[in-house]
Design brief:
436 residues, eleven-stranded mixed beta sheet, 9 helices, alpha+beta, binds zinc ion
């Protein structure tokens, strides 16, 4: 069976210059085209070869045909933002949008996966770790495509509730309407075949061809994060309160006993110590498989610590939440998930007491960028006139902790576990099925 195709939204632009490096069929006029082309947005339509269209579709005449897109902006909002020409395989679809031409690449999903995994993963990673990642990327992608085909009757998720005493909010990915995935980090970074794919990734994709993770006859929502901190988190503590049987608490170790980290006392003891776990490693050769160069500076993610002065913390929380708490008197965990991540944190101030959640809202409110995780315990410094002079947060793990723990999985890969064992460890009860 043929692999399905994926529609990837590359960019939206008023002027699209592109080069068809091989012969393409221009579907609207049933003609063959090759070479330099230009399409211009004109009041909600696309001007192409002196005619107006609402949509243009260019279909390749052979499997290796490619086209180049001129001046694609990459690294939007990063210090390295720049423009480059990019090369793609597959079909090119231009759609007239409300404020520009939406450029979409339609491609066989196995080819798409080869490209994204080559650019996201290090070639030094163990093959079994890469295979596990291939299966979860494919599952996520097929779930997106399926979702998109039922977009018409898509339910509207509520993603927060708020009253005078609390704001509990979660951040899930919003879906796209006109295409399945975008080419940015929002979905998975994709640059076509601009950079060569790595041979090991090509092997990994072909050896897992069509394989996805299933549970209860649905494709698994294959979440993953950098480091669970020793126990993985349940889905409902981070996002909408709907349990997913395969996204549950798992002790990230051969030892299977999971401590009850929803209990404050047990969480406190767990976070202040460094129990053995697959992701408890400082081995640079393993970390370099998962973290990009910048992140390799970081080895203190399994257990970490940050200290704020009263002034720093009060100003930070004011700026991040928009609420003036006055002096910060206490930070009290009201509810923790199974990994020890705080789901609801009460901030007690001299002017206001208010509860925030879930984990990402807490991480954003208590850090200039993001706290590593919301699995932390709080120590207050010396009291001056009843007001703590400092707050120290001691924490565990990096990211939301739900699903596959990347650092743990990389360690499992080097310890000789195969990808099926890795996947069934992190996604309990899920099965690998060959979709095509
Ligand atoms: Zn996206
Ligand atoms: Zn872990």
């Amino acid at each position: 069976m043929e692999a399905p195709v994926v529609n990837i939204g590359i960019l939206t632009k008023k002027n699209v210059s592109f080069i068809l490096n091989d012969e393409y069929i221009h579907v609207e006029t049933a003609s063959f085209l090759k070479g330099k082309q230009r399409a211009v947005w004109r009041n909600g339509k696309i001007l192409f070869r002196s005619k107006l269209y609402t949509e243009l579709f260019f279909e390749p005449t052979n499997k290796t045909a490619s086209f180049d897109l001129k001046e694609v902006t990459i690294g939007v909002d990063f210090h390295w933002q720049r423009k480059e020409d990019q090369r793609f395989r597959g079909a090119l679809n231009l759609i007239a949008g409300a404020d520009g031409i939406i450029v979409i690449n339609q491609l066989d999903i196995e080819e798409y996966l080869t490209s994204v995994i080559s650019s996201e993963m290090r070639a030094t990673a163990s093959k079994e770790f890469l295979k596990a990642h291939a299966v979860i990327s494919r599952s996520w992608l097929l779930a997106q495509i399926e979702k998109n085909s039922r977009l018409a009757n898509k339910k509207n998720y509520k993603s927060s509730f708020q009253d005078e005493e609390q704001l509990i909010k979660w951040y899930d990915r919003e879906d796209h309407a006109i295409f399945d995935v975008c080419a940015d980090d929002h979905c998975q970074r994709y640059q076509g075949i601009t950079r060569a794919s790595t041979p090991i990734v090509e092997e990994v994709i072909s050896e897992t061809r069509g394989e996805i993770l299933m549970s209860d006859s649905t494709i698994c929502d294959t979440r993953f994060s950098k480091c669970c901190g020793g126990v993985t988190e349940k889905f409902e503590h981070c996002w909408e309160p709907i349990p997913h049987t395969y996204l549950t608490t798992v002790r990230d170790h051969t030892e299977k006993n999971v401590p009850d980290l929803t209990n404050e006392k047990e969480a406190d003891q767990w976070i202040r110590t460094s129990p053995e776990a697959f992701c408890h490693t400082t081995d640079k050769s393993i970390l370099s498989q998962v973290l990009n160069n910048y992140d390799q500076e970081t080895t203190d993610f399994y257990r970490w610590q940050i200290t704020y002065t009263q002034d720093e913390l009060a100003r930070l929380i004011h700026r991040k939440t928009g609420y003036n708490f006055g002096k910060i008197l206490d930070l009290i965990p009201l509810k923790r998930g199974g990994s020890g991540r705080i789901e609801q944190l009460q901030i007690v101030g001299s002017l206001l007491t208010y509860t925030i959640g879930k984990e990402l809202e807490i991480r954003r409110s208590l850090s200039e960028s993001h706290l590593y995780s919301s699995a932390f315990v709080v120590d207050k410094g010396e009291l001056i006139n009843g007001i703590p002079s400092r707050f120290t947060l001691t924490g565990a793990g990096w990211g939301h902790g739900v699903g596959l723990c990347q650092i743990g999985a990389a360690v499992m890969g080097t310890k000789g576990y195969n990808y099926k064992q890795i996947l069934s460890h992190y996604y309990q009860g899920a099965t690998i099925e060959k979709h095509y």
